[in-house]
Design a protein that fits this description.
By secondary structure, this protein is mainly alpha-helical. The chain contains five helices and no strands. It has helices spanning 2-38, 41-63, 71-99, 108-149, 160-196.
Length: 199
């Protein structure tokens, strides 16, 4: 009788230990999922604020679109609207996709494949965004001059201070864009390290 009781107790303890191990694994996976998602919180907040600003500027441009009276200015306005609406939406969608990657349900291989695809798209969009930022800067000059001052930038007199200001802004834009891209890469590398800890 004691042997049967010992076997039953052993079987019960083994089952409880297995359940506890499964529960511990579930808790670890949930904590890893949360740690992974938190890597993108700060950048998501900045991108959301940036998108709201872009949409507000786009709305302002739409309201003042009638002031654009030449084909060149109309073309600049259309490019600016596309830049201000489409790029933020694409970036936010990719950030949401990479942030909400399901580490718990997917296998390690599936997670890594989905992560790598989304990461590559996100970094490509950021590179495109870098280049287009400089194009956007030069396109917004005539738009802003026309909408704010009702002047034609090409025909207006520009002093040395105008060109110095442009150089200062371009240098600042270069360093800001470089800092932003490096921040993206740092966050993405940190998130990738969280995934690799699961291996």
């Amino acid at each position: 009788m004691e042997l049967e009781e010992l076997q039953a107790t052993w079987l019960q303890m083994s089952t409880e230990l297995e359940n506890q191990k499964k529960l511990t694994n579930d808790i670890i996976m949930k904590m890893t999922q949360d740690k992974y998602a938190k890597k993108f919180n700060k950048i998501s907040l900045f991108e959301t604020i940036g998108a709201v600003i872009c949409f507000a500027v786009a709305l302002l441009l739409i309201i003042n679109f009638k002031k654009l009276d030449t084909p060149f200015l109309i073309g600049c306005g259309i490019f600016t609207l596309i830049f201000l609406v489409i790029l933020p939406v694409v970036v936010l969608r990719l950030l949401s996709k990479i942030r909400n990657l399901d580490i718990i349900s997917n296998t390690y291989k599936e997670t890594l494949i989905q992560y790598t695809k989304t990461k590559n798209k996100l970094l490509l969009i950021q590179k495109i965004n870098l280049v287009l930022s400089f194009v956007y800067f030069f396109i917004t000059l005539p738009l802003a001059t026309k909408i704010i001052g009702n002047k034609n930038l090409v025909l207006s007199d520009k002093g040395a201070s105008f060109y110095i200001l442009i150089i200062v802004v371009l240098v600042g834009l270069f360093f800001f864009a470089r800092w932003g891209y490096r921040s993206y890469k740092k966050i993405i590398t940190g998130a990738e390290n969280v995934i690799k800890e699961l291996e």
